[in-house]
């Protein structure tokens, strides 16, 4: 009979991937928004 | 709806709303994931692997909701030519693709201990993978149209045609034999036990708020880029006249 896999490494990997992916998306989108809006303000001020 | 198509009005609403959505979404998601990882009970058949539910189901929902948003915004753009509709479609595509990829990855990690395999070419998994490729195609096409100055109707038509995949994903577990379980929620409610259901609803709400905040942030970035380009182009056209 085959032994069942230890589920915890899969659970931890899924949470780590989900959290890292979501935080990276939020940080990237926020940074891109701030950069684009700063560029617009610079273009207006010139 | 026409009232919100005004960029100035959109910015007046989006500026305070973006951080509120992101911060409340992050707080609710963090609480739901701590509950899912540390406090939710193990399930009778699946044991501890059921904890992946709290991250897999919200990402699956947002992967499909992202394309539904792309299709709805594309329809609005094609029919009413709203200036913000194309930005809403483009703003939804990247977060939709990220959540679609996270759904495939977390589902694969759930599949190994539950089914004995990371991947199987059945209807649900394959149609979700097709959705990820549709996102890649849409993002590439919309980017090329913006760079080369083509018609924004092209990605809008692509966004509408790709929506055919959404009901295929949803009904794939009903139409075809699948290792994947049937939908967790139906019109008649859910058969899920309370400790799983409430945790899942909280994490779905949290991730959805994050998604909405990210879409607003990306729309603001795209709008700022369009306005900057327009201003620089206008100045470049005025300069030769001033020199003369």
Account of the protein in words:
The complex is a heterodimer of chains A (46) and B (244). Helices cover 83% and strands 0% of the residues of chain A. Chain A is built from one helix and no strands. Chain A has one helix at residues 8-45. The N and C termini of chain A lie far apart (75 Å). In chain A, 24% of the residues are buried. Chain B has 244 residues and is mainly alpha-helical. Chain B has a single domain (21-183, 192-215), classed as Four Helix Bundle (Hemerythrin (Met), subunit A) (Up-down Bundle), CATH 1.20.120. Helices cover 77% and strands 0% of the residues of chain B. Chain B is built from seven helices and no strands. Chain B has helices at residues 7-39, 53-80, 85-115, 123-148, 153-162, 165-175, 194-243.
How do the helices and strands line up, and which of them pair or pack?
The complex is a heterodimer of chains A (46) and B (244).
Chain A: H1 8-45
Chain B: H1 7-39, H2 53-80, H3 85-115, H4 123-148, H5 153-162, H6 165-175, H7 194-243
Helix pairs in contact in B: 1-7, 2-3, 2-5, 2-7, 3-4, 3-7, 4-5, 4-6
Strand percentage of chain A = under 5%
The end-to-end distance of chain A, rounded to whole angstroms, is 75 Å
Write down the overall geometry of chain B: elongated
User: Which parts of chain A are unreliable, with pLDDT below 50 for 5 consecutive residues or more?
Assistant: none
Order of helices and strands of chain A: H
Please report the first level of CATH classification, the CATH class of chain B.
Answer: Mainly Alpha
Rg of chain B: 21 Å
Strand fraction band of chain B? under 5%
Low-pLDDT runs of chain B: none
Tally of separate domains of chain B: 1
CATH architecture group name of chain B: Up-down Bundle
For the residues shown, what is the average pLDDT of chain B?
91
What's the total helix number of chain B? Answer: 7
Main interface: chain pair and counts: A-B, 28 and 41 residues
Strand/helix succession of chain B: HHHHHHH
Largest sheet of chain B: none
């Amino acid at each position: 009979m085959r032994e069942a896999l230890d589920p915890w490494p899969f659970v931890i990997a899924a949470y780590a991937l989900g959290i890292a992916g979501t935080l990276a998306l939020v940080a990237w989108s926020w940074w891109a928004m701030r950069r684009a809006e700063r560029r617009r303000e610079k273009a207006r001020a010139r | 709806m026409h009232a919100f198509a005004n960029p100035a009005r959109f910015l007046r609403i989006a500026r305070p709303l973006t951080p509120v959505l992101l911060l409340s979404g992050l707080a609710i998601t963090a609480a739901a994931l701590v509950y899912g990882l540390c406090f939710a009970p193990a399930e009778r058949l699946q044991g501890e692997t059921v904890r992946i539910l709290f991250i897999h189901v919200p990402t699956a929902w947002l992967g499909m909701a992202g394309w539904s948003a792309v299709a709805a915004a594309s329809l609005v753009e094609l029919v009413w030519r709203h200036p913000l509709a194309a930005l809403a479609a483009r703003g939804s595509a990247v977060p939709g693709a990220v959540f679609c990829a996270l759904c495939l990855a977390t589902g694969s990690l759930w599949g190994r201990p539950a089914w004995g395999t990371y991947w199987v070419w059945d209807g649900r998994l394959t149609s979700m993978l097709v959705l990820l490729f549709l996102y890649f195609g849409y993002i590439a096409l919309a980017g090329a149209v913006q760079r080369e100055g083509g018609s924004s109707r092209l990605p809008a038509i692509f966004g509408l045609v790709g929506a055919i995949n959404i009901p295929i994903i949803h009904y794939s577990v009903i139409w075809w034999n699948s290792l994947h379980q049937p939908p967790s929620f139906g019109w008649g409610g859910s058969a899920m036990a309370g400790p799983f259901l409430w945790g899942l609803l909280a994490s779905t709400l949290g991730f959805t708020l994050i998604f909405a905040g990210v879409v607003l942030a990306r729309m603001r970035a795209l709008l700022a880029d369009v306005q900057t380009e327009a201003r620089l182009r206008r100045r470049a056209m005025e300069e030769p006249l001033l020199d003369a």
